[in-house]
Write a structure and sequence with these properties.
CATH architecture: Alpha-Beta Barrel
Radius of gyration: 17 Å
Shape: globular
CATH topology: TIM Barrel
Strand content: 15-25%
Bound molecules: phosphoenolpyruvate
Structural class: alpha/beta
CATH superfamily: Aldolase class I
CATH class: Alpha Beta
Length: 250
């Protein structure tokens, strides 16, 4: 039985004062929760704040990106080891907001994935299709290709220590979530693709859904067999809404 996991993606929101309030509310609301993992992925400058506030709680923290290189003359980049220095355990990789705006290739994303694992971080790999791709019926081909770059280069066993988040691009920040059936069908496809190569990695792989999850639609989504939790953007900035989603998952 895979335990549900809810991951907050704060994106580029917050400041020291507002983060303090939000994290205090997370701690008050979520510390006693059983049967669900909670992670908050903060902007790089606030990793230290997350570490000092969350280190003795059951809430883990992580980053929203990392460098594909371990060290070197890469101005502005942040390595996996640097994230570990601040106690991070998770890192989001290949989020479509980055992949599109910063032209991240599947190859770069695959390298980041193994860089993260090499330092003991759990990568949260985002995959998903555009609206045009869904309307054309090629969503499985698109998501399959995103996974293939990692599967073909590093094998399926790497997914035993990773998380995949299915994030249809048309659902992110739009208020238009995928239906529970659409999401379940893609999650089943993702698990099946890994299972074809490594059954045990597929059985333990957590596959999250992300894209306009809110306290109302969380109920239908999180009950689906292959939906192991959620990656939550907007609603993670509201302590009450985030709490409701975590309670639903629990
Ligand atoms: C996200 O950032 O990954 C996300 C799913 O955002 P939202 O919940 O706001 O759609």
């Amino acid at each position: 039985m895979r335990q549900k996991l809810v991951v907050a993606n704060w994106k580029m929101h917050g400041n020291l004062a507002s983060n303090k309030q939000l994290l205090e509310a997370y701690i008050a609301n979520l510390s006693a929760l059983k049967n669900v993992g909670v992670v908050v992925c903060v902007p790089y400058p606030y990793l230290g704040q997350a570490q000092s506030m969350l280190q003795h709680t059951n809430i883990a923290w992580g980053a929203q990106n990392l460098s594909k290189d371990p060290v070197g003359p890469f101005t502005g980049e942040v390595s996996a080891a640097m994230l570990k220095d601040f106690g991070a355990s998770y890192v989001i990789i290949g989020h479509s907001e980055r992949a599109t705006a910063y032209c991240e290739s599947d190859e770069n994303i695959a390298t980041k994935f193994v860089q993260a694992q090499a330092q003991g971080l759990t990568p949260i790999l985002c995959v998903g299709e555009t609206l045009i791709e869904r309307e054309a019926g090629v969503m499985e081909m698109v998501v399959g290709k995103q996974l293939d770059t990692i599967l073909n280069t590093y094998g399926a066993a790497v997914f035993a220590n990773a998380i995949v988040s299915y994030e249809p691009i048309w659902a992110i920040g739009t208020g238009l979530a995928a239906s529970a059936e659409q999401a379940q069908s893609m999650h089943e496809f993702i698990r099946g693709k890994v299972a074809a190569l490594d059954k045990s990695a597929a059985a333990s792989l957590k596959i999250l859904y992300g894209g306009s999850v809110n306290p109302q639609n969380a109920v239908q989504l999180l009950v689906m067999q292959d939906i192991d939790g959620g990656l939550i953007g907007k609603c993670s900035l509201n302590a009450q809404e985030f709490e409701k989603i975590c309670l639903t998952a629990a």
